[in-house]
Amino acid sequence: MKIAPAVKKETGHIALGTAVGVAVMLVVFAVLGYFSAGVAVSGILGGAIAVGNFFLLGLTVQKVADGQPEDRARKWMQFSYNMRMLLMVVWLIVALAVPFFNWVAALVPLLMPRLTIGVMQATGMYHKEKGDTLPLNEGGNAKE
Amino acid sequence: MLDKAIVLAGCAIGAGLALIAGIGPGIGEGYAVGQACSAIGRQPECKGDVTSTMLLGCAIAETTGIYGFVTGLLLIFVAPGMFTGMLG
Q1: What is the pLDDT of residues B10-24, one digit of tens each?
Q2: What is the distance between the alpha carbons of residues A22 and B36, in angstroms, rounded to a whole number?
């Protein structure tokens, strides 16, 4: 399956934002004197899982936007959501159960994509340009 | 003994309630995707824009579910030890 440019672009933004966020988090850990190999590994793995989760979401969105019937698209999206949540829960349980990992450093990167989107919206990176869609007629369909 | 039992019960009930937060995003995302399919059907030229908007919208919606899961897991794994430790 060819990856859509929109998915690549947004995943790139999220990956960049998450990488910066994880770096800041590790610096904060170091300043507070809690830095260790476990913290670094937890942060990096947590960031990778957050970006991977977003990428899988992108692939799902691409698949359902590819002309699937509405009912089937809805079911596929809900199935994908459940699977991705399961992945997150497994990672969090591993981070909480294995003493090597630091659960705070494992948890914080999972929230970075939301923070990145907030920053993108606040800085105007994600403002739709006017006039890039066709006007609609009274029935809600695109005018020719 | 009874104090610890009450704390553990509270944590278990709280975790259960927190996990309810996972239901909302699933329903919401399904609804959003259904509407996006309709939009793409009406205006196929906007597929890229709709995909982009839906992707970010779904990511935002999912964060609510993650908050719920995190709260639930912390109540199961971290809070009991912390609170029962306080009781001595």
Answers
A1: 999 999 999 888 888
A2: 32
Q: What is the interface size between A and B, counted as CB pairs within 8 Å?
A: 122
ipTM of the complex in this document? 0.77
Q: Which domains are seen in chain B, by residue range?
A: 22-87 (1.20.20.10)
Per the rule left: phi > 0, alpha: psi between -120 and 50, beta: everything else, A134 is beta
Tally the residues of chain B. 88
Give the nearest chain A residue to B61 (CA atoms).
A114
Q: Alpha helices, DSSP H only, in chain B?
A: 2-19, 23-42, 47-77, 79-87
Q: Which residue has the higher pLDDT, B51 or A11?
A: A11
Distance between CA A20 and CA A26 in Å, rounded? Answer: 10
Q: Hey, where are the domains in chain A?
A: 5-120
Q: How far apart, in whole angstroms, are the C-alpha atoms of residue A118 and residue A25?
A: 17
Query: pLDDT tens digits, residue range A62-73?
Result: 888 877 777 888
A18 contact partners, CB below 8 Å, separation of at least 6? A47, A50, A51, A109, A112, A113, A116
Residue-level pLDDT at B16:
92
Which tops the pLDDT comparison, A139 or A103? Answer: A103
Nearest-Cα residue of chain B relative to residue A70: B34
- pTM value is 0.82
DSSP A124: T
Q: What is the DSSP letter of A129?
A: P
Chain B hits for A136, Cβ within 8 Å: 42-43
